[in-house]
Amino acid sequence: MNAKQNDMAKTFRAFHDGKRLLVLPNAWDAGSARLMESAGARAVATSSAAVAWSHGYPDGDALPVKLLAATTAAIARVIRVPLSVDSEGGYSKDPVAAAEAIGAVIDAGAVGINIEDADQGTDLLCAKIERIRDVAAKRGADLFVNARTDVYLFGLVSEERRLEETLARAARYRAAGADGLFVPAVTNADEIRTIAAECGLPLNVLARPGLSDGATLASLGVRRLSAGSQLAQRIWLEAGALAREFVETGCSDPLFAAGMAYGDLNALMTDRR
Predict the structure, then answer these.
(1) Residue 131: partners with Cβ closer than 8 Å, 6 or more residues away
(2) Which of 27, 28, 126, 188 has the most CB atoms around its CB within 10 Å?
């Protein structure tokens, strides 16, 4: 990790201090990352699903690590804010291989990652986090490891046990070396407050229908709010509808009803090296 990347890492870690909610509108390629930065994002995070879709792969550890690293490098080249990369489950059930994948992401310019337990179990994610810590240390990288638990998202336990299970997993991930806890799909304010107060890590939640606004989330103790794949899903929906209408009718007018000006988009993508 070079001096610039180390500075970015320190900045990104400081964003979790609770003074101001870190809001991340997740990107999927260099162009979308520039757009998120230009919209005022203090850091850029990727959505693993959106990155996979942009390369024609499904979500779920299917994206080749070489493409993930190339996407990371492309984004790091064009932004001037810290970059965190959603790394799914590390693209392997082998902790050594998962850590090697994260090493490639660090080398490409990331200062933070997400890594998830999904249905792979707590022991495996702990082993991955420990290996990732070793890989980061060898690179002199102050990597922010955001451990994602899918207890709420995938209903891994009964509703009555979700809170207890989330806190139990948080304790194990913290002991393994995690820096943050990501709990997608939790929306209940009381549960969010309890997790934030008792998990011992900066809490990251995911945008969902009915979730409290940023100011309220901050008051509940949340440190980080992510859009996840929803921005990409909205854009894919709208692009698909436009394309379908154009193919069916051959009518040009709907294509020009709205959109960023060509000059503005071109200026946004001007090389900033």
Answers:
(1) 95, 96, 98, 99
(2) 27
Query: For residues 30 and 74, is the Cβ–Cβ distance under 8 A?
Result: yes
Domains of the chain: 3-229 (3.20.20.60)
Structure confidence at residue 213 as a pLDDT band (50, 70, 90): very high
Report the candidate in 126, 52, 34, 35 with the shortest Cα–Cα distance to residue 88.
Answer: 52
What distance in Å separates the CA atoms of residue 238 and residue 199, rounded to the nearest whole number? 39
Tens-digit pLDDT profile for residues 50-94: 999 999 999 999 999 999 999 999 999 999 999 999 999 999 999
Which helix (H) or strand (E) element contains residue 241?
Answer: helix 230-249
What H or E segment, with its residue span, contains residue 147? Answer: strand 144-148
Neighbour tally for 242: CB within 10 Å: 15
Query: What is the DSSP code string of 31-73?
Result: HHHHHHHHTT-SSEEB-HHHHHHHTT--TTT-S-HHHHHHHHH
Q: What is the pTM of this model?
A: 0.96
Task: Find, among 237, 238, 187, 243, the residue nearest to 217 by Cα.
Answer: 187
Please state, as a whole number, how many other Cβ atoms lie within 10 Å of the Cβ of residue 78: 19
**120 with 149: CB under 8 angstroms?**
no
Averaged pLDDT, 146-150 = 98
Q: Which residues 6+ apart lie within 8 Å of 62 measured at CB?
A: 52
- C-alpha 271/C-alpha 273 separation (Å) is 6
